[in-house]
Design a protein that fits this description.
By secondary structure, this protein is of the alpha+beta class. It has a domain at about 415-565 and about 600-670: Rossmann fold.
Length: about 675
């Protein structure tokens, strides 16, 4: 570890000497970054409220407060004087009030802000934090979901300990299928239910019951007689976890009525402005690795269900009705770029906007959102590789683009990001076109020879894209050319492309990545003797697989990998979700297949010096997986080091200091083996 510390110092020294400290991104710049999230445009389109995100250097965490502006970008100011986290801003139907959620001494509560006076007040006194906050159509009520605890099971009673005695803690007992989650830890016993309360404050009323989970978006009937929501209220709900239906609950009688009935996830019900139609999302579950999420319409009584996006080969999310009831706006990704689309009731499609994203800062994953006013103006989070999410507006057809914010102007005025360049190349497997991106060091010169880093994305059924990434920029600022590809299995290229990994992962996605490396070598961007590889989660799996398949890389950093599918599956938090969607059957029914796709099966081939990194509280890819690679390499006397991040879950970089730790150790390891 002493050598690692020395190389860390060398990394910082080199960073400061390669370019002026005022020109390149440095670690502490993470705490200066800001971005817009949870945008909400007022019903009349005159104001925009959003959650302004940043990082607290003293608390080492992200923070968010609500800001408001006119929709032309003027009068930009903080909404309240509170120095607390604020989230989930929601306009009342008449635009005269804002409901939002904010933390306090006793947890999160619902607040109301009055536009005419600028006053605000706490309206609730809740036992748990609310979510899915939704106004009723006439603005008199609020609906939300909230967790309701229930007693844990008791198997046996033991004698009561004497007063003052110090006995061992009581055992933790569970009989649930889903009892822990990465980032949350052990899940308390209980269920989420729907609640309503007067918008003026007062008694909170629970409107769902029974031992079922009621989560996700909520939509009101136009006459306020019912709420629409998604859940699985069947007897086998715990094991049929991929299935859900759309339900209504009558607010007078409490009667809950299922409106859909098929095998697949139905969710995000959204009632049209005229109250006659429900738009929702879902698909018929075929138990494949990936399926497009489709847009459906149905009558409010559950009749006349029809899919309207069957001609589009991408998944739809975040649906919002056009004010005139004629169609729906939505998010989708295409070729690694976040977009906003529109579908009318007959399935006619229109692309509205590009470059939605910028709310995932570490690595360039898809993100971002939008909001539509009653007059058709759209506000959304806009990002390019040079900056995280800012706010822009367009009209309902995508015209009249106007950028309203430049939240990082002061930082980027003195920092030069690395240029991001798109690259397409041909797969040697089947001649498919594969997309990737190159990040060049600031002040890049084609006359110089640079180390070349492959950064594999997670998922694996996710996508990278042309989005801002502080991790990629820090690697580039350290003098590395960074290549991040979207091999087969990545989303945003259609259902068939993403589903190529079914029963075949890792598979030819390995070839797609290596073909990208060779394409960059052929272009003179990369050099055979200066190759490095890293990636986290599924990217860690791919990185471990790559060094097991070849010895072309000078060094590797394998972050939070799965090394052995047999040992991983039954201890991870998502253990119940793999059968038949990753490989045929359960792991004990088909161990050979699970083993053949495990990177540990190739560890005897590894000659590459390898750093292994994992969060010590990781429940998704448990630390025992990382240790298998580290221990195997130690036994084989391959240069290796294990970096364990205390208190970190699968999202190692969720805390800014851990993001710095991850990047700094990756660079230090590569510097150690740089030629």
């Amino acid at each position: 570890m002493q050598r690692i510390k020395q190389h860390l110092f060398f990394f910082f020294l080199c960073t400061s000497t390669l370019l002026s400290a005022q020109e390149v991104f440095e670690m502490n710049d993470i705490f200066s970054l800001q971005y817009a999230n949870d945008i909400q445009i007022s019903p009349d389109g005159e104001h925009i409220v959003y959650r302004r995100m940043g990082y607290d250097i003293m608390a080492d965490k992200s923070t968010g407060s609500l800001w408001i502006m006119k929709s032309d970008g003027s009068q930009h100011q903080k909404l309240t004087s509170r120095d607390q986290n604020e989230s989930s801003p929601r306009w009342s139907p008449n635009g005269k009030q804002l409901a939002f959620v904010s933390s306090g001494k006793n947890g999160s509560e619902i607040f109301i802000y009055w536009m005419d006076s600028g006053n605000f007040a706490r309206m609730s006194q809740l036992a748990q934090s609310p979510s899915s906050l939704t106004w009723s159509p006439n603005g008199t009520q609020l609906a939300f979901s909230m967790f309701v605890p229930s007693p844990a099971p008791v198997i046996a009673k033991i004698p009561k300990q004497p007063k003052g005695a110090k006995w061992a803690p009581k055992p933790r007992i569970t009989d649930r299928l889903n009892h822990e989650a990465d980032g949350r830890g052990y899940i308390p016993t209980g269920f989420s239910h729907l609640f309503v309360m007067p918008a003026t404050g007062g008694a909170v009323r629970q409107v769902t019951s029974s031992d079922f989970q009621h989560r996700g978006s909520i939509s009101w009937a136009k006459d306020e007689s019912a709420l629409y929501f998604s859940a699985n209220r069947t007897e086998n709900w715990e094991y049929d976890f991929r299935n859900s239906e759309i339900y209504s609950v009558n607010l007078n009688s409490g009667v809950i009525t299922p409106l859909s009935d098929r095998n697949g996830p139905d969710g995000s019900p959204t009632v049209s402005p005229d109250g006659n139609t429900i738009a929702f999302l879902g698909f018929d579950d075929k138990r494949e690795a990936y399926q497009n999420t489709l847009l459906y319409f149905m009558d409010t009584d559950g009749g006349n269900i029809r899919a309207v996006s069957t001609n589009l080969d991408f998944s739809i999310s975040n649906i919002q009705w056009e004010p005139n009831n004629k169609g729906v706006y939505f998010n989708y990704d295409e070729h690694g770029n976040g977009k906003i689309g529109y579908l009318d009731r007959n399935g006619r499609f229109l692309k509205i906007a590009d470059n939605r994203g910028g709310t995932s800062l570490g690595r360039p994953y898809g993100s971002g959102m939008f909001s539509v006013s009653n007059k058709g103006k759209i506000a959304y989070t806009y990002s390019r590789p040079t900056h995280p999410a800012d706010i822009v507006t367009v009209d309902g057809k995508g015209g009249n683009f106007k950028r309203l914010t430049n939240l990082n102007q002061a930082l980027f005025a003195h920092k030069k990001p690395g240029k991001v360049e798109e690259i397409w190349y041909t797969s040697s497997v089947d001649q498919r076109k594969i997309q990737g991106w190159i990040v060049y060091p600031p002040n890049y010169s084609p006359e110089k020879k640079y180390p070349f880093m492959v950064e594999n994305h997670g998922g694996p059924i996710l996508n990278y894209g042309d989005r801002f990434s502080i991790e990629m920029q820090l690697y580039a600022s350290a003098g590395y050319i960074v290549f991040y590809p979207n091999p087969r299995g990545s989303t945003s290229y259609g259902e068939e492309f993403a589903n190529l990994l079914l029963n075949n992962y890792p598979g030819e996605d390995y070839n797609d990545v290596m073909d990208g490396v060779d394409a960059c070598i052929a272009k003179g961007i990369a050099h055979e003797d200066q190759l490095y590889v890293t990636g986290g989660s599924a990217g860690g799996i791919m990185s471990a697989w790559m060094i097991g398949k070849n010895n072309r890389f000078e060094a590797a950093v394998v972050v939070k990998p799965v090394m052995n599918w047999i040992s991983k599956l039954l201890v991870a938090d998502n253990y119940y979700g793999y059968a038949n969607s990753r490989y045929p059957g359960q792991v004990w029914e088909n161990p050979t297949n699970y083993w053949n796709f495990s990177p540990i099966s190739l560890v005897g081939n590894v000659e590459t010096p390898t750093m292994v990194m994992v969060g010590m509280n990781d429940l998704r890819t448990p630390p025992s997986e990382a240790k298998q690679l580290y221990h195997a390499l130690k036994l084989r006397k391959i240069p290796t080091v294990l970096v364990e991040i205390p208190e970190a879950s699968h999202g190692i970089a969720n805390r800014p200091s851990n993001l710095m730790t991850k990047v700094a150790h990756t660079i230090a390891w590569f510097e150690k083996y740089k030629k």
